[in-house]
Amino acid sequence: MDIKDSKKRAASGEDSDRPSKAKKMSTRNRNFRQHLIDRGYFRVGHDDEPANLEEIHNRLIQPRPSLSPACFPREAFLTFWRIHQDASNEAKVMNAVFPIITATTAIPSEMNVQFETLEDLTDGSITKAQPHHYDGTRPAKLNTQIREDFAPYIVPSTNNTLPCLPNFFTEVKGPDGSMAPYTSRTTQLRSFAMDDTPDTFRQGATALRNARDWVKEKWER
Q: Each residue of 68-95: pLDDT tens digit?
């Protein structure tokens, strides 16, 4: 064998005794859903709807004064509509559109953090989660020993200043994106065409803000 050829083959990984690193499965993989079903993390059928689904629906529609026509007039909706129309990708949606929907809140949150330190959900063959947005709690609010003992389950990053106890995850898509990989693995509560009319925006924003508040109340108990 030519020495030069041998060097090329070594550089390319051919004839190597080292096993190739398997590519991990992401949510976009068509087998991802079945992977979760096989391991008991996702079940199919209306019988598996949350037992408190009616309670959640009732909470989502509770009025919010900040979204009344007086506080959120048509002019505010038109501003949102123009910003939404200009959001051509996921980054613009998260940076410009999403904050209008959520409004200012005291709930600790972070965007686009890879959950690199959390325990693998199944057998290590799926990618680490990296939601566009998640809520949590400030590390200082948890006992230090608890943070250390349960770190693989509640501390999502090596950056210990980020919110822990991750919850209320948000994924967005740009105009050409598809939410199919995510909606097939969740219970849909409601849907809103928030760029349609001021009323549909108010309804959608009300549902999202109420849902975040409800989740926060639950894990603070």
A: 999 999 999 999 999 999 998 899 999 9
* Residue 147: its H or E element: helix 144-149
d(CA 166, CA 134): 6
Q: Identify whether the C-beta of residue 164 lies closer than 8 Å to the C-beta of residue 136.
A: yes
CA distance 216 to 117: 23
- 49 token code pair: 């709807």
The Cβ-side half-sphere exposure at 137, using a 13 Å CA radius, reads: 16
Tokens of 85: 């129309």
- Model-level pTM greater than 0.85? no
**What tokens were used for 5?**
């050829």
Encoded amino acid at 203, one letter: Q
Integer Cα distance of 7 and 116 in angstroms: 36
